Amino acid sequence: MSEKYKFFEGGLFFVTLTVVGWIDVFTRKDYAETIIKNLNYCIDNKGLIVHEFCIMPSHLHLICEAKKGNLGSILRDFKSFTAKRIIEQIQENPQESRKEWLQYMFTFFAKRNSHNAQNQFWQQHNHPISLESSKWIQEKTEYIWNNPVKAGMVDEPQHYIYSSAYPFTELKIPK
């Protein structure tokens, strides 16, 4: 793997976590709120620091770092837990009209990856990009904030509730 896409201790990174097949899962409020809840858990208990974020229908963008240790380990644990929890939520949700199809897709992608026994929710790679200048940080922040605007989901970045641009976000972001 290229050095360009590796975590290292003490770094600030732009990371994208993507659902397998770019499946739109986070269109349901319950699933997006599971992401917020578990990011907050990692902030409180694992040393994750999230500076910027945006939950799109099929992926999640973060500008983040670890207080200490390896950010990759924190994100691995986050992805493992949220994958299990969201798949459970899908199975338990009586309003989930795509339940069978989603389960089929998660099983399909698991068969293509020897690391997964039954289901694969997240794509395996995060492609972390080290942010080593204020110019890069600003560029990625603007990208994150404008992602839902470019997707036609809102007219202004601050109107998208699953973003750090939203002034009332429930995610614990340092001010």
Automatic annotation (TrEMBL):
Position of the signal peptide: none
Keyword list, A-Z: Membrane, Transmembrane, Transmembrane helix
GO molecular function, one term: transposase activity
InterPro entries linked: RAYT_transposase (IPR052715), Transposase_17 (IPR002686), Transposase_17_sf (IPR036515)
TM annotation in the entry: 7-26
Pfam family, one: Y1_Tnp
GO terms for biological process, alphabetical: DNA transposition
SMART domains according to UniProt: Y1_Tnp
Domain of life: Bacteria
Statement: the UniProt record of this protein carries the keyword DNA-binding: no
Domain (Transposase IS200-like): residue spans on this chain: 8-147
Name of the molecule in the record: REP element-mobilizing transposase RayT
Gene source species: Runella defluvii
